[in-house]
């Protein structure tokens, strides 16, 4: 059951990571355009979006790491002795 849950977490985390990574790149491009245009309100909006999507990207990768830990754990649940 742990391996199944771990595999699900890995797939879920990779899909979230891809989703947030896509939007972070898209907003970063919009941020660069807003900086070139000299629009401070649009620039701040895109800065906040890139920051938030970067945080969600990192959290999604933590889900992948937790899923990998579950998928590779042994059935004993001991300290690895």
Number of helices: 2
Helicity level = over 70%
Gap between N and C termini, in Å? 22 Å
State the low-pLDDT regions, or none. none
Strand residues, percent: under 5%
The structure class reads: mainly alpha
Q: Tell me about the biggest sheet?
A: none
Gyration radius, rounded: 18 Å
Total domains: 1
Question: In words, what does this structure look like?
Answer:
The protein is an all-alpha fold. It has one domain (2-71). The protein is built from two helices and no strands. It has helices at 2-37, 40-71. α1 (2-37) runs antiparallel to α2. The relative contact order is 0.22.
Short characterization:
The chain has 81 residues and is mainly alpha-helical.
List keywords for this structure.
2 helices; 81 residues; mainly alpha; 84% helix
Topology:
Layout: H1 2-37, H2 40-71
């Amino acid at each position: 059951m742990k391996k199944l849950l771990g595999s699900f977490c890995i797939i879920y985390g990779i899909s979230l990571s891809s989703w947030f990574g896509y939007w972070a790149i898209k907003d970063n491009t919009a941020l660069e355009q807003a900086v070139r245009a000299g629009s401070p309100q649009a620039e701040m909006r895109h800065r906040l979006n890139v920051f938030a999507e970067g945080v969600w990207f990192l959290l999604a990768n933590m889900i992948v790491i937790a899923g990998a830990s579950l998928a590779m754990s042994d059935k004993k649940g001991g300290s690895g002795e």
